[in-house]
Amino acid sequence: MAALRPCRRALVSPLCRAFSGPGCRLAPERAGERRDTAPSRVSGFCPPRKSCHDWIGPPDKHSNLRPVHFYVPENESPLEQKLRKLRQETQEWNQQFWANQNLTFCREKEEFIRSRLKAKGLELRTGSGQKATLDAEEMADFYREFLSKNFQKHMCYNRKLCAQCGA
């Protein structure tokens, strides 16, 4: 069955040529990139050198967002360039916001669990070495408190996102 499937490389190359015209080149900012170079700031994902499309990488371990590697066409107009740069800035801003938010969430969640277990006179680990946990009702208290405490931050995030998108 596998022998009947067309080679992925055989499909991508004609499609790339069909959509991009005769010259399929990398953007100047990515022209030096290779698979053996250092990974990007966000993740280790690096698209193929001759890619002619935007590529979406695997989720970032801190923000849980999937980074986009933007393709820059050889004949990119000033307006297209402006749009791409705004998209890149928005992506970087989103990555930073959610990485910080997730870090804060994890830190506060651990502190909450630790304080509740301590109040009950329990250790962080059970006798068998497993991590002690709280029930769903107790964790609901944490989630409610966390969302209430961060309500303004999320409102500002949504306003800034709408302002950046022009909505």
Automatic annotation (TrEMBL):
A GO cellular component annotation in the UniProt record: mitochondrial inner membrane
Signal peptide feature range: none
GO biological process, one term: intrinsic apoptotic signaling pathway
Domain of life: Eukaryota
Protein topology in the membrane: Peripheral membrane protein
Chief subcellular location: mitochondrion
Annotated localization: Mitochondrion inner membrane
Keywords: Membrane, Mitochondrion, Mitochondrion inner membrane, Transit peptide
Coiled coil spans: none
InterPro entries on file: COA8
Residues passing through the membrane, by range: none
Family (UniProt): Belongs to the COA8 family.
Protein name stated in the entry: Cytochrome c oxidase assembly factor 8 isoform X3
Species name: Panthera pardus (Leopard)
